[in-house]
Design goal:
Strand content: 25-35%
Helix content: 25-40%
Largest sheet: 6 strands, mixed
Number of helices: 6
Structural class: alpha+beta
Length: 184
C-alpha cells in the first residue's frame, strides 16, 4: 500500500458515516492556495460524551470487536492534519449525527499529498447505496456540487458499468473545470 493521502482520509470519514447508519451525508471540500479543508456531516447514530473522549485513541473503535478491534482512521487524520499546523474538530450528538472537520496547511512540508479526489468522490457516490450523499467542492472560489440522488434519478442504476464510467468521467471533468478556472 502506498502513502496515505488526504483523499484516503476523506474516504475513511465518509465510510464511518456509512457505518453509523446515516441516511444523509454532506461532504464539503474547500481548497485555496494554502489550505485544504473537508467536512463530513451526517445524521447517523452519533456518539455520546464518553465515546467522544476516546475517539482519537487508536485502540478504541465503535465497530463490532469481532470485525475490527482498532480504529486508526480518526487518530491518523488528527496526526496528519496537526503535523501541518491544521486541526480536526468533531461534534456529535447521540441519535442525531456527527460532524468531522479537518484542515491541512498544504504549503507545509509535512502535508500529505491530496491524492485523487475525483476517484475518491466518484467511489463514495457509487457506493452510497440508499444513503443520500451530497458533495460540495470548491477551489479558490470555483465550485460544483453533485449528489447521489441526482445521479440515481439521471442514471437509474448506479451499479451498471456504463453508469460507473459516466460518474467517474463526470466527476473528473468537474474537478478539471475548477482547476482550469483557477489557472486562467
Amino acid at each position: 500500500m502506498g502513502l496515505r493521502t488526504i483523499a484516503d482520509h476523506i474516504m475513511d470519514i465518509v465510510q464511518n458515516s456509512f457505518n453509523a447508519q446515516a441516511k444523509r451525508i454532506y461532504l464539503k471540500i474547500e481548497q485555496n492556495q494554502n489550505w485544504f479543508c473537508f467536512e463530513v456531516q451526517d445524521d447517523g447514530k452519533g456518539m455520546d460524551e464518553l465515546q467522544l473522549q476516546k475517539i482519537f485513541d487508536p485502540f478504541y473503535t465503535t465497530r463490532d470487536p469481532r470485525i475490527r478491534r482498532v480504529g486508526f482512521g480518526l487518530p491518523f487524520l488528527k496526526q496528519a492534519a496537526e503535523a501541518t499546523g491544521g486541526t480536526v474538530q468533531i461534534h456529535s450528538t447521540k441519535g442525531l449525527g456527527t460532524t468531522v472537520k479537518a484542515c491541512f496547511d498544504t504549503s507545509h512540508i509535512d502535508c500529505q499529498e491530496i491524492g485523487n479526489l475525483a476517484d475518491a468522490i466518484s467511489t463514495l457516490l457509487l457506493t452510497s447505496n440508499d444513503i443520500e450523499l451530497v458533495v460540495y467542492r470548491s477551489r479558490d472560489g470555483n465550485e460544483y456540487s453533485v449528489s447521489s440522488t441526482q445521479l440515481k434519478e439521471f442514471l437509474k442504476d448506479l451499479s451498471s458499468p456504463s453508469a460507473m464510467k459516466f460518474v467517474y468521467e463526470a466527476v473528473e471533468e468537474l474537478e478539471r473545470s475548477i482547476i482550469e478556472e483557477v489557472q486562467r
